[in-house]
Amino acid sequence: MPRQSSEYTLSHCIGTSIGSGTLLQSSAGNGVYLTPTREGDVGNCTAPAADVRHIVNATGIINVPKFSKPVMDILASNWRVSGILNVASGSAFTVVSGVDAALNGKNALTQYANQVADKVYGNQCTDDLRKSSGFTCLWLNPAAFGRPADGAFGNLRPGTVYGPGNWTLNAGLSRTFRIKEAQNIEFRAEGTNILNHANFLNPNGNITNSQFGRIQSALPGRVMQFGLKYLF
Predict the structure, then answer these.
(1) 3-state secondary structure (DSSP) of residue 150
(2) d(C-alpha 9, C-alpha 38), whole Å
(3) CA distance 126 to 161
(4) Cross-strand pairs, 220
(5) Confidence at residue 29, expressed as pLDDT on a 0 to 100 scale
(6) What was the pLDDT predicted at 19?
(7) How far is residue 193's CA from residue 101's CA, in Å, rounded to a whole number?
(8) Which residues pair with 42 in a beta bridge?
(9) DSSP secondary structure letter of residue 29
């Protein structure tokens, strides 16, 4: 008989881009709160504990019944098929200026950029992922962001934009073959992302980078493994 279960999670993670226990000032200039008050560094959580609003997980197991015909019984009986579907919306990340616009030496490369237009997302296509130049697919709209004026803080906060969502189907197939009363051979095949679906990572969020707004990487593709175990 098939068995299945599923769950849906709606969440919202809010925090600081730096983390808890960080000082407001530091001579090193890195890993400190950027704005004069901690409130300016509060926003949607970014990696590694990024804000992912929607998550769906579903699992299923099917045990193939025993067949009465000898040939079908040998070939098709007693197989176990399992599957896991993971679906998630995009994760939050921060658009940064890439320069010390604030002129304070704090987090010089990760200070917040300015948002100068409402349409922050581009065409969001991924067709030219491998192009080194002449690309037209942009997840973010470069015209919507700008460098803060010298001595000023950007008007953005952490985690104001979101990357692409993703979904992955993992599956397993197994069966135990009895040789003698106390001897068995177990066969198992497992695959992650068995449909080889492309799950893209967040785009470049540095407005001074020539690849700004462009997706350049993805999660691993299909991975298969097989196993054979002798039990006695």
Answers:
(1) coil
(2) 29
(3) 17
(4) none
(5) 55
(6) 47
(7) 43
(8) 16
(9) -
Give CA–CA dist 92/98, Å, rounded: 18
Largest CA distance in the chain: 82
- Could you give the CA distance from residue 116 to residue 231 in angstroms, rounded to a whole number? 66
Residue 70 contacts by C-beta under 8 Å, 6 or more apart in sequence?
A: none
How far apart (Å, rounded) are the C-alpha atoms in residues 156 and 42?
Answer: 10
d(CA 97, CA 90): 22
How many residues are present in the chain? 232
Intervals of the chain under pLDDT 50: 19-22, 25-28
Q: What is the DSSP secondary-structure string of the chain? A: --EEEEEEEE---EEESS-TT--S--SS-SSS--SSSGGGGEEE--TTS--B-EEEEEEEEEEPPPPSSHHHHHHHTT-EEEEEEEEEPPBEE--B-SS-TTSS-SSTTSPBPEE-SS--B-----TTTT-SSS----SB-GGGEEPPPTT---S--TT-EE---EEEEEEEEEEEEEEETTEEEEEEEEEESTT----B-PPP-BTTSTTTT----B----EEEEEEEEE-
Angstrom distance (rounded) from CA 17 to CA 29: 15
Give tens-digit pLDDT for 48-76: 889 999 999 999 999 888 777 777 777 77
With beta carbons less than 8 A apart as the criterion, state whether 61 and 103 touch: no
